[in-house]
Design goal:
Layout: H1 7-15, E1 23-24, H2 25-32, H3 36-48, E2 52-65, H4 67-75, H5 78-89, E3 92-93, H6 94-98, H7 105-117, E4 121-124, E5 127-130, H8 137-152, E6 155-156, H9 162-167, E7 177-189, H10 191-196, H11 200-205, H12 212-217, H13 243-257, E8 261-262, E9 268-270, H14 271-274, H15 308-317, E10 339-341, H16 346-353, E11 361-370, E12 382-391, H17 397-411, E13 417-424, E14 427-437, E15 441-451, H18 453-456, E16 465-471, H19 472-479
Parallel strand pairs: 8-11
Antiparallel strand pairs: 1-7, 2-6, 2-7, 3-5, 4-5, 9-10, 11-12, 12-16, 13-14, 14-15, 15-16
Helix pairs in contact: 1-2, 2-3, 4-8
């Protein structure tokens, strides 16, 4: 029986005139007079029917200026603006560099931090100056690339030098551009396709659905209707809860059964609870606008609660009476109110410490967090973190390591687990938990440690507190036998239900 062709399939077959002719999909769509999406669907159906075959595929990546890039094209990169001020005026107070009328405070602070990390700026007694051997050419070359892309409209990634392509991996530079990737596939006719071309003209003239308008004007008379197969078995649609959702529910039930109380909070948080209360300095790289999502409107939250604001500020500035030198800078109380999307579940733990927690007491949360990140098998811009704290007079790192091992082995069902020394601004000592994934190798689960006094005492807690923040998405990879974090959010039915068919 001759394979039935749709009008779009017939149009593509007629556009491929000869068996030795190879055409890209875009050319096929233009020749057949259908849009690209329709052509893409039709060519895949023709491939399944064996009428065409794919002969090649090329991936083309192009860059164009983003809205942020167009702003920097006219005014200059934020780093260049700071450098030009320092070159023209000499050493300047840090607060003047970070509070500029031509830059949002977060962007100016991020540029200042980038220049410090590059060794271009030296900070002395609250004043910033250029290093004697400072090389400013990097930012001048980056500005030149902006101008080149703007002049061309867009550039292929192949037209960039190795150095310029490397810049696109920099979280400070990457947001200046929009990257688009297109796949150009080419196709040609097969022998069955040549045979079906004879039926293509008739297929294009066939009627599909019979509409009221056709009945009224009689245009259906003398036309051929496309066949409709009424003997196909009905599709059985079965519903099931997502595997990952069920995993999260099991984890939550286990935590509640162990006596942990659940912490909850808003996805929108201010910098104070997300970072300041955790003794993260306001010049820390994690506060970069390209690491954290800032809320555009409103920019600032409500006034912060006292005495916690003043006590945290004193800890940062080193004005406390419990043996800490702090970070040695002037704490910006206005910036602490800046609204962001929660970047770590530890913000909930910080708030819990001010809510008169039980001592001894144990608390947990399964917090959705957001960070600017490149999507791959183990990273996503939003993720779920299982966060927890335990307070008590006799709590120690030994208790923490025991809890972490239970999490990794019982919840993630990992066969091999490691706890290695690490550094975090808010814990000391600190460890990083890793588990062995059968395909991905050693995967970082997250950090943990004993809260520093600079965290607990400004928030009114005088007993030891152990804390952890682990990526439960990654734990689920091993527990559910998956190799990519994106597969956790699939709408595919669990095995068994997906294979059900009517008998």
């Amino acid at each position: 029986m001759q394979e039935v062709l749709s009008p779009h399939e017939a149009a593509l077959l007629l556009a491929l005139e000869r068996p030795d002719q190879e055409l890209r999909l875009g050319e096929l769509a233009a020749r057949s007079g259908i849009d690209l999406a329709q052509a893409r669907s039709a060519i895949e159906r023709l491939k399944l029917k064996g009428a065409v075959e794919q002969t090649g595929e090329q991936v083309r990546t192009e860059i164009a200026l983003s809205a942020f890039g167009r702003d920097c094209l006219a005014a200059g990169l934020p780093e260049l603006r700071l450098l030009r001020d320092l070159m023209a005026r000499g050493p300047l107070p840090v607060t003047e560099l970070q509070r500029r009328p031509d830059l949002p405070q977060s962007e100016a602070g991020a540029a200042f931090g980038a220049l410090r990390r590059a060794g271009v700026l030296i900070l002395e007694h609250g004043q910033a100056r250029l290093a004697g051997d400072a090389d400013l050419s990097l930012w001048e070359r980056r500005q030149a690339l902006l101008e080149r892309v703007a002049a061309a409209g867009s550039l292929s990634l192949d037209e960039l030098s190795d150095e310029e392509q490397g810049w696109l991996l920099d979280k400070r530079f990457r947001p200046l551009f929009d990257l688009s990737e297109t796949k150009e596939r080419s196709y040609r006719l097969t022998a069955p396709g040549v045979a079906q071309q004879a039926h293509a003209v008739a297929a294009m003239d066939a009627i599909g659905p019979l509409t009221p308008a056709m009945l009224q004007d009689g245009s259906w008379r003398g036309r051929r209707f496309r066949p409709y197969a009424i003997g196909l078995p009905p599709r059985l649609v079965a519903g099931s809860r997502n595997d990952y959702r069920r995993f999260l529910d099991r984890v939550k039930q286990k935590m509640l059964a162990l006596g942990f109380a659940e912490m909850r909070g808003s996805l929108v948080e201010n910098e104070f609870w997300d970072m300041d209360a955790l003794f993260m300095p306001q010049f820390h790289p994690a506060r970069d606008i390209h690491d954290v999502y800032f809320v555009a409107d409103p920019v600032y939250g409500a006034p912060l609660q006292e005495p916690y604001l003043s006590q945290v500020a004193a800890a940062h500035e080193g004005r406390t009476g419990y043996g800490t030198r702090g970070w040695g800078y002037v704490f910006d109380r206005e910036r602490a109110r800046r609204l962001i999307l929660r970047s770590q579940g530890t913000a909930l733990s910080a708030r819990q410490l001010t809510a008169r927690p039980n001592i001894p007491g144990k608390y947990f949360s399964m917090a959705r967090c957001f960070r600017y990140d490149t999507v791959d098998a183990t990273h996503a811009p939003d993720f779920i973190q299982i966060e927890g704290i335990v307070l008590g007079h006799d709590i120690s790192m030994r208790h923490l390591l025991g809890i972490l091992m239970v999490f990794a082995q019982e919840l993630a069902q990992a066969k091999e687990v490691r706890a290695v020394p690490d550094y975090f601004p808010f814990t000391e000592p600190s460890v990083e938990m890793r588990m062995l994934h059968p395909v991905l190798g050693w995967v970082e689960l997250g950090g943990a440690g004993l809260f520093r006094p600079e965290v607990t005492r400004p928030l009114g807690i005088d007993v030891p507190v152990i804390a952890w923040g682990l990526g439960i998405d990654r734990m689920a990879l091993v527990a559910l036998g998956k190799n990519d974090i994106r597969h956790l959010f699939s709408n595919s039915l669990p095995r068994g239900l997906a294979d059900m068919r009517p008998t």
